[in-house]
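INFO  loader      accepted 1 record
INFO  loader      residues=126
INFO  predictor   begin
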Amino acid sequence: MKWNVCLWTMCSFVVGVVALAAQGSIDGKWTGEIQGGRGPQQITVTLKADGAKLTGSVAGGRGGEVAIDEGTISGDTVKFKTKQQGRGGEITFSWTGTRKGDEIAFSRVAEGGQGQTQQFTLKRQQ
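INFO  predictor   done
INFO  writer      dumping C-alpha cells
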C-alpha cells in the first residue's frame, strides 16, 4: 500500500514538472491580428528556441510565410527580423516580444524609418 501511494505521488510530481516545462517554452504557434493598410490581418508566428537561438516563421498578411532571421531569446524576451516585399522593394521588419504566460506582447517596426511601430499581442495556439 505504501508503495502504491509513493508511486502515485512520484507520477503526479513528474506530470506537474512536465506541464510546467511545456508552459515555460516559447516553442509553438502564436496567433493573433495585426493592423494592416487594409484593416486587421491574421498572423501566425511559429517559434523554436535552441538555447539563445530562435528560429521559425511568420505567416499571414501580405506575401505568405517568411522565415525568421537573426532570432534570439533571453528569458521571456524574443527578438528577430523578417523580410518581405513592399511597394518600393524589400522591407526588413524588426520584431521584439515579451512572453507572459500564453501571450506574447510584440512591437514591430520597419527598418529605415518606414511607417510607425505596431504593437499587438499574440496568443499561444492550443
